Amino acid sequence: MRLATTRFGEISYSEKDIISFKEGLLGLEDHTRYLILRPPESYPFAWLQSLEDSHTAIPVIPAQIFQPSYHFELSDEIAKELSIQKKDKVESYCQVYLAEQSKSSNVNLLMPIVVNLANRQAKQIVLEKKPYTSKHNLFDLLASQKGQSKGSRD
Asked: How far, rounded to the nearest angstrom, does the alpha carbon of residue 147 sit from its chain's CA centroid?
């Protein structure tokens, strides 16, 4: 299958590449089918490209890239909803909000997107325990990761 996107041009994909959300994302509830695109020039960022709207591509990042201690527990209800089995590989992503002035860009660590790679089902969840917020400064997080990396080499 092919999709003409406004950001990435024409892309090819197969049915097995589609990530499905029963409820969509916050603010995009009508968009339930996405592709996760990882253009090399965007690393470490990925993009959730909507299949319902070629103009909608949401920047995301695996939080573990810059926040190794980022961890949350999935409730039994969410694990059941996504049909997660112990052997299934699960990935989580956090939305990035790119500001006009890049130093003001934020990452939402409070509402991660959880993807069960075995069945390609996904859900955006709201964490109940709130050591995180919806507006962590992207550059502060990246700077803290560089500091942690330097410390681990010494």
From this structure: 24
Number of other CB atoms surrounding residue 96 within 10 Å: 17
Q: What is the CATH number of the domain that holds 130?
A: 2.30.290.10
Residue 34 burial (CB < 10 Å; 0-12/13-18/19+)? buried
Tally of domains within the chain: 1
Domain interval for residue 33: 2-153
Helix (H) or strand (E) holding 146: helix 138-153
Q: Cα–Cα distance between 37 and 45 in angstroms, integer?
A: 9
- Could you tell me the pTM of the whole model? 0.86
Would you say residue 65 has pLDDT above 90? no
H or E element that contains 142: helix 138-153
CA distance 95 to 81: 21
The CA-CA-CA angle for residues 94, 98, 104, to 5°, reads: 105
Among candidate residues 26, 14, 13, the one with its CA nearest the CA of residue 123: 26
Integer Cα distance of 18 and 119 in angstroms: 10
Cβ–Cβ < 8 Å for 106, 120: no
Residue 138 to residue 96: CA distance in whole angstroms: 8
Read off the pLDDT band of 64 (50, 70, 90): confident
